[in-house]
Design goal:
heterodimer, A: about 290 residues, alpha+beta, Uridine Diphospho-n-acetylenolpyruvylglucosamine Reductase, domain 2, Uridine Diphospho-n-acetylenolpyruvylglucosamine Reductase, domain 3, Enolase-like, domain 1, five-stranded antiparallel beta sheet, four-stranded antiparallel beta sheet, 11 helices, about 25% strand, globular, B: about 160 residues, Ubiquitin-like (UB roll), DNA polymerase, domain 1, five-stranded mixed beta sheet, 5 helices
C-alpha cells in the first residue's frame, strides 16, 4: 500500500500553506480515530497527511462573548474543563458518552465535526448552544454557524484549502438549561442510534425566549427540529406543550434504516427522547431557581 | 515509500526507530521494539487490547500512526513491571483470576493503571467506566473490577508507607 507523505508543520500558517498547495489531496490528521480506519479501508486515499499538533490548536479561551475551543482539543480535554462543565454541561455530557476512554483521549472536537457523520455525538449539543466555527485558509478566515456546516454524510461546506481551527460557544444567560441524550446498543463504544440535545432559555416572565432541539442520526446531517422549536418559543413550559413539541420533532426527523436501528424505531425514539430531554431541561430550569 | 525516523521514549528508555510512515504505534512497539505485550485485537480502536499510555493517557495504539507519536512518552504493559517485580495490579489480576485467555489483559491492565494513577480509591462504577474501552470476551468483568479494588487497597497502603510501585 502506498502511504501518504506525513508532514508535521511547525505552525498553523505553515499547515495552511501546505493545505493550499495540496487541496483535497491533503487531509488533516487530528486524533486519527476515524481517518486511519478510512485510509485502511481505502475510503480515503490522501497523498499528504498534515499533523497540526505543533499549531497550538488545543487551547480554551474565554472572551466576553464566547468560549473559544481549539479544534484539536481531545474529547477528554473538553470533558475535564471546568468552564465547559459549568457553562455547557450538555457538551460535557456528550463527551462522557463518547466511545470509551482510550478513544476519548485521541478523538478531537474538530474531527467529530469535520467527518460530517450524521451520528456525531458532540455536534447536537454544540448546535444547541449556537456554536460558530472558524475556518481558516492562507487567504483569511470565515466564521459560520456550525448548523450550516453539514451538507450530507461525510460532506460539508469546507473548502479544499480550509482548516477548521476553532469552535466558539456563545456565553449563555443565567436562565438557560440544556440536556444531551444518547441512545446506543451499549453504554460505551457504540455509534448512536439517536442522539439529541435540547436547550431552553427563559425570559424574565418565565416564557421561552429561545428553544433548540437538535437531532443526530435521524437525518443525513445533524438537524434542528425548527418546527418543534417554534412551538415552544414565547410559550410557558407546560408538560402538554413539551409532549406536543416532541411529537412535532418526530415528524421532522427523516431517518433511514441501517444496521444500528430501523427507521420506525428511530422515529419512535426521537419522540420519546426529545420528550425526556425537554422535561429534564425544564426540571433543571425550575431547580436552578434563576427564573419564575 | 521511504522510512521515517521516529524518536520516542518507551518504558523510560529513549528509542530511535526507522519505520514506514503508515505503521501504527502498536506495530512499532511489537515489531521494531519487540514489545509484544500490547495485542492487535480489532485494529480499529474498538477492543482495547492494544491500549498503552501515551503522554500520560491511555490510548488505542492501533489508532496512532508512528509519526504522530514522535517525541512522545509511551508506557506499555511491560513498563508496569519494575525490577522484575510485578505491579500490584498485575498481582491482583493473577490472584483474582481476572483473565482467562489473557488477550485483553495487557490493555485492561494499562487502562486500570491509568485510572489508579489519578484515583487510588475508585468506586466500582469508576472502574467500569475506566475499562469501558476494553473488551473481554471470555472471563467477563467482575473479576477485573475485584482485582482493581484489591490493587487500589494495596497501592493506598504502599503510598501511605512512602513507597510507590
Amino acid at each position: 500500500m502506498k502511504f501518504p507523505e506525513f508532514i508535521t508543520p511547525a505552525s498553523l500558517d505553515q499547515g495552511l500553506e501546505i493545505k493550499r498547495e495540496h487541496g483535497t489531496e491533503a487531509r488533516i490528521i487530528a486524533g486519527g480515530t476515524d481517518l486511519i480506519l478510512k485510509m485502511r479501508d481505502k475510503v480515503l486515499s490522501p497523498s499528504v497527511l498534515i499533523d497540526l499538533r505543533r499549531a497550538s490548536l488545543d487551547s480554551i479561551a474565554l472572551s466576553r462573548e464566547h468560549l473559544g475551543l481549539g479544534a484539536l482539543l481531545s474529547v477528554s480535554e473538553v470533558f475535564e474543563n471546568a468552564n465547559i462543565a459549568r457553562m455547557f454541561p450538555a457538551l460535557a455530557a456528550a463527551c462522557s458518552k463518547f466511545a470509551g476512554p482510550p478513544i476519548r483521549n485521541r478523538a478531537t472536537l474538530a474531527g467529530n465535526i469535520a467527518n460530517a457523520s450524521p451520528a456525531a455525538d458532540l455536534v447536537p449539543p454544540m448546535i444547541a448552544y449556537d456554536a460558530d466555527i472558524v475556518l481558516r485558509s492562507s487567504a483569511g478566515e470565515r466564521i459560520l454557524p456550525l448548523a450550516e456546516f453539514f451538507l450530507g454524510p461525510g460532506q460539508s461546506v469546507i473548502e479544499p484549502d480550509e482548516i477548521l481551527t476553532q469552535i466558539r460557544l456563545p456565553l449563555t444567560s443565567a436562565s438557560t438549561a440544556a440536556t444531551f441524550i444518547k441512545l446506543g446498543q451499549r453504554r460505551s463504544m457504540t455509534i448512536s442510534q439517536v442522539n439529541l440535545a435540547t436547550r431552553l432559555d427563559l425570559d424574565g416572565r418565565g416564557l421561552v425566549s429561545a428553544a433548540r432541539i437538535v437531532l443526530g442520526a435521524v437525518a443525513p446531517v445533524p438537524m434542528r427540529a425548527v418546527a418543534a422549536e417554534a412551538m415552544l418559543t414565547g410559550k410557558e413550559l407546560s408538560e402538554e406543550l413539551l409532549c406536543a413539541a416532541a411529537r412535532k420533532a418526530r415528524e421532522e426527523a427523516m431517518p433511514i434504516s441501517d444496521v444500528r436501528a430501523s427507521r420506525a424505531y428511530r422515529l419512535q425514539m426521537t419522540e420519546v427522547l426529545v420528550r425526556r430531554a425537554l422535561l429534564a431541561t425544564r426540571r433543571e430550569l425550575a431547580g436552578g431557581g434563576t427564573s419564575d | 515509500m521511504t522510512n521515517v525516523e521516529i524518536e520516542l521514549e518507551v518504558n523510560d528508555r529513549q528509542e530511535r526507530v526507522s519505520v514506514e510512515p503508515g505503521k501504527t504505534l502498536l506495530h512499532l512497539l511489537r515489531e521494531n521494539l519487540g514489545l509484544t505485550g500490547s495485542k492487535d485485537g480489532c485494529s480499529s480502536g474498538d477492543c482495547g487490547a492494544c491500549v498503552v499510555m501515551l503522554d500520560g493517557r491511555p490510548v488505542n495504539s492501533c489508532m496512532v500512526l508512528a509519526p504522530q507519536a514522535e517525541g512522545s512518552s509511551v508506557m506499555t504493559v511491560e513498563g508496569l513491571t519494575q525490577d522484575s517485580e510485578l505491579h500490584p495490579l498485575q498481582r491482583a489480576f493473577a490472584e483474582s483470576w481476572a483473565f482467562q485467555c489473557g488477550f485483553c489483559t495487557p490493555g485492561m491492565l494499562v487502562s486500570c493503571y491509568a485510572l489508579l494513577e489519578f484515583n487510588d480509591n475508585p468506586t466500582r462504577d469508576e472502574i467500569r467506566t475506566a475499562i469501558a474501552g476494553n473488551f473481554c470476551r471470555c472471563t467477563g468483568y467482575q473479576a477485573v473490577v475485584k482485582a482493581v479494588e484489591q490493587a487500589a487497597t494495596e497501592l493506598r497502603a504502599l503510598n501511605g508507607g512512602g513507597r510507590n510501585a
